[in-house]
Amino acid sequence: MDRAAFDALFDMTDRTVIVTGGTRGIGLALAEGFVLAGARVVIASRKADACEEAARHLRGLGGHAVGVAAHTGNLDDLDLVVERTVEEFGGIDVVVNNAANALAQPLGEMTPEALAKSYEVNLHGPVFLAQKALPHLKESRHAAVLNMVSVGAFNFAPTMAIYGSVKAALMSFTRSMAAGYVADGIRVNAIAPGPVDTDMMRHNPQQAIDGMVGGTLMKRLATPDELVGAALLLCSDAGSYITGTVVIVDGGGTPR
What we know:
By secondary structure, the protein is α/β, with parallel strands linked by helices.
C-alpha cells in the first residue's frame, strides 16, 4: 500500500450520506464525522427546525449539508428524503439508518399500538429507506448501508422486549440485505451500541442507567463521538471487504 491508497481509506470526499435521526445524539455525531471526512450529508428527522439547525452546524464545520423534515415511519416521507437528496446532491452513496424510538412496555402489559409504532420506525423505516434508495446506491462505486441496531438485540430484558426484538429483526435484515445487494456492489452492515450518553439514555431512571453501566467492562457510558470510528470504517473504503456483519461498540458488556 502506498501513501495515496492509505490516505484514501477513510476519505468520504464527494460522497453523499443520508443520516436519519441526525439532529442529536449518535446521529449528529455520525453526521459530523462524515462531514469532516469530506462527505455531503443529508439530515432527516421529524422536526424541520432541528433539521435546519443541525444542517447549519454541519455547514459551519466546512461541509455541505441539508436537512429534510421526515418521519421515518412514513413511507411517503422516505420518498421525500430520497428525492431531496438526489435533487440536492445528484445521487446517494451511503444510507445510515439511525432514527429510532425506544418504546418500553413490560411483558404482559404491551399494547398492539406500541408494538406497531416501534416496528414502524425501527424496522419498516430502515428497510424501506434502503429499498427506496436502491436505484441510486446501485449507481455508486462506494455504496454502503449502515443500520444502527443495539446490544439489546443480543441481550434479554423483560421491560425492553419491544426494543430488543425490533433491533434483532433489523440485525437479521442487515444480513439478508448484505446477501441480496452484494451483486450490486452495495455493502450492508450494522453497529450495535451499548449504553451511550444521549437524550434517549437520560430518559431512563438513574437506577436503570447505573445497571447498564455496571454491565460494561469499562464501567461508563460511551460518548456519541465514540461511535464515529466504527461508522467510518463500515461506510468508507477502509471497510471494503466487510459486509453482513455487526460491530458491537459497548465497552465490553455483551457476551460474545
